[in-house]
Design goal:
- The complex is a heterodimer of chains A (478) and B (609).
- Chain A is 69% helix and 2% strand.
- Chain A has helices at 6-20, 25-40, 65-84, 86-91, 93-108, 112-130, 136-164, 169-177, 185-199, 208-213, 217-242, 247-269, 274-295, 298-326, 342-355, 362-376, 381-405, 428-446, 448-455, and strands spanning 46-50, 59-63.
- In chain A, a hairpin with an 8-residue loop joins strand 1 and strand 2 (59-63).
- In chain A, helix 7 (136-164) runs antiparallel to helix 9, helix 12 (247-269) packs antiparallel against helix 13 and helix 15 (342-355) packs parallel to helix 18.
- The longest helix of chain A is centred in the N-terminal third of the chain and has 29 residues, at 136-164.
- With 609 residues, chain B is mainly alpha-helical.
- Chain B is 70% helix and 4% strand.
- Chain B has 25 helices and seven strands.
- Chain B has helices spanning 3-23, 25-45, 65-82, 85-88, 95-113, 118-136, 142-170, 175-180, 186-204, 212-219, 225-244, 249-252, 264-286, 290-311, 316-345, 361-375, 381-396, 399-424, 440-458, 461-473, 495-515, 537-540, 548-551, 560-582, 587-606, and strands at 53-56, 59-62, 258-259, 262-263, 480-481, 485-488, 491-494.
- Classes of the chains: A mainly alpha (478), B mainly alpha (609).
- The interface between A and B is large, with 86 and 82 residues.
Chain lengths: 478, 609
């Protein structure tokens, strides 16, 4: 069994090494990304004490099912992103390796200040990556908001430290639980803001349109799937495990998630650029996950994050490639694009349908769990809102899919000659990765209970959260 | 064979048809014929195994008579329509995808009708929705597919909400148990009832969801419109059936306000059905396109089916259940006839055709008989079922609904005969003088459907016997059937005797037709126009703006589509506002909103605790 600290130390070490090995840095990156995924299978569950001081005095890492789920999603998609766009990733080898270390650290750490450090490492690499979009203005905006977020987070941490005298998560959770909820309002706000910048939540997600709207196949996938997924896992760790809020503060947190969800979906509905549709849809899904975490529903939230991250990975890489090859991502000008790229078209379609919650795809299992969790808690308003927004989501995705598949003027039979020319959006490796991921969505959707058990395996998630619904118990024919 | 294995085989065969089509288009088309006929034969042979419960992984199935009946209706539409597929493959942009989705959606409908629990029901329901949405876009319109999908989604989401709500109260997804568990809480039951039936309403094209039918039926590939109208619309009837039988609606709402003896929620739905009859009829009268016209007639017929099923009584219910079979047969045949004409002429606009009877006499007969059935004229099936619905309405004294039903019946004369006279009768266009009748392979399904329509009208008890079994399983008194008569409180109907009378009348008319001197045929352009030359035959077509004076009575009526357009524009507007306010790209703005959120948190912590 391997020590989880290796998942941080190895990428970080290789990051420095890659500066020296200028020629071979692409290979170093690939090796690190592969090793990271392989290591996940052999990691030792439990607590790791760093430096010999036991928590709450020292710094510790905690590998539970929750952290492992986060690392599995982020690590797998990181590897996939590197595989799909190797030429682009090579230029950013050092940055990406540091980011990988940072992401693993964010997910593993059991210490709030340590979390801040890892978040900064990740954020700085994200700023650098965003500059690949050749739009310095957007990177600058991102940098400003990211810095504001960090300062807020740090400020919140200081307040918490002065109130409880500890930075250890488990200890903080214990002490904060006995504190007056109202006293937590301000630190909760400050820490919320710090994470909301990365998690793309309203009100702090102002940078997203600029950065993701100009993303390429590498940065789009990284920002929408890897970074955003990891940030949401951190959000869940803090607001559903460490700082459990209640009363009015909890309602505000839920409302902010709900607003992000509703506003994101509404904004996505009016877009014609594929990347913008996707980025607003990502914002919406982040809002949903945040809303679930704030309600204390961890398992459904994890499903939403996984479902969204994998789907968005497929779709953002495809959208990025489309932009690189065709010079535009306005779907009105790309009629019948998938006619020449049927395999990728199928992968894109499966991902989009999964996001809208079509049965037999993983997104349906996620949606069913979300609904069941709320209904079990006798909450009927939020599911109704979720379903209405799912309708909006279905509408804009089906419009996009129809256009990308079928060329020709409205009111006439489809015209194969009018299809957007060009085949081979991806190189073979990239196409294989994208297609395998979409097949994974299908497979996990066909065997949802296995997927659910896999995710909540070994000791379960914080708070003992388990699947809200077991599909094998729903059938009638017994 | 268990249902799960059967469905798995169908999915595998669907995938196989994909690869066959990729290799040879025409062979792929024939593959769909073979597979859908196989499915029909399998389901027909399942009649004996009714009553079993099966499960496979997380899917639960329950073999019921009603599921069997619906499957037979559906597979008749699918298998008969599939005979057209091989000839249309060259016009499809994705022939392999079309065949695959055609068979997947077919398998989906079977799975849905035999579902034992709501999750299974929902899974197959959605499978049918997306697979058919991807077929429709291969027709004339992309917008049609979008409208279809969104309105279906409205229904699906409402139904999912109802399913989960029922589950949260009664703790099970098993169809009957989940609903009967609601008996203790009528308030929740009302929400579940109205939300659950919504998907049925939207699928059947009940007002205000009817807007997708003219779009989708009118623009879908010609080989899929018959399935949509003859088959998929009936999925909505299945949901309506579950809403009043599995869901004990009359018992749970028994203590509620009653309107004319019917609990208010059910009466409200009947009114929607009545509105659909009126709107469908009036809109059908207006149409210039034969397929859109038939689509609106499906709206009206959906109204009859819904009203019949909701009555849940001895006679009207039987009428509704039988009408869905009759309408499936007739509308599939009518759409196929129009498709056959379109195959030869390339158009479905009525004013661009005429005199097809001289070139396609069999297609003419098929169309004639199916519209006679749709209008409810003896001796066709549609007459019997409408007669039963009217009997039921009269029995219960449901005055307003009956008025709408009669209006629709009379109005249907106005619209169904229009394509008949415009497309088939009248003068032949010069450019159509070389048109031939379609080949045997396309003629075969049309003739079979026509004969079935006639058989349903002459021997209605064959279908009604199945319906009585359904009535028994639903716990209501079955309709009284004598040897070949249907007995109700107001009288009886001997369909065979009606057939003899009509046959006799037909024979006399036929003799007169033979004996009488032949009329002189005049060419379409052979006309006097006071020194003006007319070169476009369409302008001389007498069916152009046929009912203009009548249409003027209601041409200012609001269009339901505008409502949806407004909602859509509203969402887009909200999206624009959100973009400008939160994602404008100015960090200062974002920081302003962060501070505003801070104020809210501060207040939440201090003031509202």
């Amino acid at each position: 069994m391997l020590n989880p600290v290796l998942t941080i130390a190895i990428p970080l070490g290789l990051s420095f090494l890659s500066v020296i090995l200028k020629k071979k840095r692409g290979w170093v990156l690939l090796a690190a990304a592969c090793a990271n995924v392989v290591m996940l299978f052999f990691l030792e569950k439990g607590e790791v004490v760093i430096g010999g001081f036991r928590a709450p005095f020292g710094i510790n890492l905690i590998l539970d099912a929750y952290a492992l789920a986060g690392m599995a999603v982020a690590g797998t998609l990181f590897l996939a992103a590197v595989l799909v766009s190797r030429d682009k990733a090579e230029r950013f080898s050092t940055v990406l390796l540091a980011a990988l270390a940072g992401i693993n650290g964010m997910l593993l750490t059991g210490d709030l200040f340590n979390l801040f450090v890892f978040m900064e490492i990740t954020a700085i690499s994200a700023y650098l990556l965003s500059s690949a979009g050749k739009k310095p203005e957007h990177s600058f905006n991102y940098l400003v908001l990211g810095s504001v977020g960090s300062v807020f987070y740090l400020l919140g941490l200081i307040l918490l430290y002065s109130m409880t005298g500890t930075l250890n998560m488990a200890e903080m959770s214990r002490l904060a639980g006995s504190m007056e909820p109202a006293a937590l309002a301000v630190p909760v706000f400050l820490i919320f803001t710090g994470i909301a910048v990365e998690a793309k939540l309203i009100p702090a997600g102002g940078w997203v349109r600029g950065v993701l709207g100009n993303s390429d196949s590498l940065t789009g996938a990284l920002f929408a799937s890897v970074y955003s997924g990891a940030a949401l896992f951190v959000f869940g760790r803090i607001f559903a495990d460490v700082l459990l809020s209640e009363g009015a503060v909890q309602i505000v947190l839920i409302l902010l998630g709900l607003l992000t969800f509703a506003f994101g979906e509404a904004a996505a509905f009016r877009q014609t650029s594929i990347r913008r549709i996707l980025l607003y849809s990502s914002i919406g899904q982040s809002g949903l996950a945040a809303m679930l975490f704030a309600t204390g529903l961890i398992f459904p939230a994890v499903l939403v994050i996984i479902s969204n991250s994998v789907s968005k990975f497929v779709m953002f890489t495809t959208a990025g490639k489309i932009t690189e090859i065709h010079g535009t991502d306005d779907y009105r000008e790309l009629g019948g694009l998938f006619r020449g790229n049927r395999l990728i078209g199928t992968a894109f379609t499966i991902s989009a349908l999964s996001l809208t919650g079509i049965p037999l795809l993983f997104g349906f299992y996620a949606k069913l769990n979300v609904l069941a969790a709320y209904f079990n808690g006798r909450n009927y308003f939020l599911p109704a809102v979720i379903l209405i927004l799912a309708m909006v989501e279905g509408a804009y995705f089906i419009r996009l899919l129809i256009r990308l598949w079928t060329p020709g003027k409205e009111g006439e039979e489809p015209d194969a000659g009018a299809a957007t020319k060009g085949t081979g959006l991806f190189k073979p490796v990239g196409a294989a990765v994208v297609f395998i991921l979409s097949m994974a969505i299908l497979a996990a959707g066909l065997l949802p209970d296995h997927a659910g058990e896999f995710i909540s395996s070994d000791g379960g998630l914080p708070g003992g959260d388990a699947p809200s619904i077991n599909l094998s118990l729903t059938k009638g024919g017994q | 064979m268990s249902i799960a294995v059967f469905l798995a085989i169908l999915i595998i065969l669907a995938a196989a048809s994909f690869f066959v089509t990729a290799a040879n288009k025409k062979a792929g088309g024939f593959a769909t014929v073979a597979v859908s006929l196989f499915a029909l034969a399998m389901v027909l042979s399942m009649k004996g195994s009714v009553g079993g419960e099966q499960s496979f992984m997380y899917l639960g199935f329950s073999i019921t008579t009603v599921g069997w009946y619906f499957s037979v209706v559906m597979l008749t539409a699918y298998s008969m329509t599939s005979f057209f597929n091989p000839f249309w493959m060259k016009k499809m942009i994705y022939p392999a995808g079309y065949n695959f989705l055609y068979l997947v959606s077919m398998a989906g409908t079977i799975g849905m009708f035999f579902a034992g629990d709501f999750i299974t029901l929902f899974i197959f329901w959605e499978t049918v929705v997306w697979s058919s949405a991807f077929i429709i876009q291969q027709g004339k319109s992309r917008k049609a597919s979008y409208v279809y999908y969104v309105l279906s989604a409205v229904g699906s989401m409402a139904t999912l909400f109802a399913i989960m709500l029922a589950y949260s109260v009664s703790g099970t997804f098993v169809i009957r148990d989940a609903f009967t568990g609601l008996a203790g809480s009528p308030g929740t039951a009302l929400v579940v009832f109205l939300a659950f039936i919504l998907s049925g309403l939207s699928k059947m094209g009940i007002f205000p969801f009817h807007v997708w039918l003219p779009e989708a039926h009118g623009s879908a590939p010609h080989t899929f419109s018959p399935v949509l109208s003859g088959g998929l619309v009936k999925m909505g009837a299945f949901i309506a059936f579950l809403s009043v039988t599995a869901f004990p609606a009359y018992e749970i709402f028994g203590d509620m306000l009653k309107i004319m003896g019917i609990p208010a929620p059910i009466y409200f739905l009947m009114l929607l059905g009545a509105l659909s009859i009126i709107i469908g009829t009036l809109m059908a009268i207006k149409q210039e396109d034969a397929k859109r016209l038939l689509a609106y007639s499906s709206v009206a017929n959906g109204g009859y089916i819904l009203i019949g099923i909701l009555m849940l009584d001895q006679v009207g219910f039987a009428g509704g259940m039988m009408h869905l079979m009759n309408h499936a047969l007739a509308s599939a045949a009518a759409f196929l006839a129009i498709a056959a004409v379109a195959y030869r002429t390339g158009t479905t606009k009525m004013s661009e055709m005429g005199g097809m009877i001289h070139r396609m006499p069999v297609t003419y007969l098929v169309y004639l008989i199916s519209i006679i059935s749709m209008a409810g004229i003896p001796p066709m099936g549609g007459f019997v079922s409408k007669w039963l619905v009217f009997q039921g309405l009269a029995d219960k004294g449901l005055l307003f609904i009956a008025a709408a039903a009669f209006f629709g019946s009379i109005g249907s004369f106005m619209y169904v005969f229009r394509p008949l006279s415009a497309v088939f009768l009248g003068q032949l266009f010069t450019r159509d003088k070389d048109v031939r009748e379609v080949g045997f392979f396309m003629m075969f399904p049309m003739v079979v459907l026509t004969l079935l329509t006639l058989a349903a009208g002459v021997f209605p008890n064959i279908i009604l016997r199945v319906v009585t079994e359904i009535q028994k399983s639903a716990g209501i008194e079955p309709v009284t059937l004598a040897r070949n008569t249907i007995v109700t409180t107001n009288g009886f109907l001997d369909a065979f005797r009606v057939f003899i009378v009509f046959g006799f009348g037909f024979a006399i008319a036929f003799v007169l037709f033979i004996v009488r001197r032949k009329s002189r045929k005049v060419g379409l352009m052979d006309t006097y126009t006071s020194a003006e030359f007319i070169h476009t035959p369409e302008l001389l077509h007498y069916s152009h703006s046929f009912y203009a004076p009548f249409e003027r009575l209601y041409d200012k009526a609001p269009d339901t589509m505008n409502m949806y357009k407004k909602i859509s524009a509203g969402i887009a507007e909200l999206g624009g506002l959100v973009e400008a306010v939160f994602y404008g790209g100015k960090p200062a703005k974002t920081i302003f909103w962060i501070m505003a959120a801070g104020m809210v948190f501060f207040l939440a912590g201090g003031v509202f605790r």
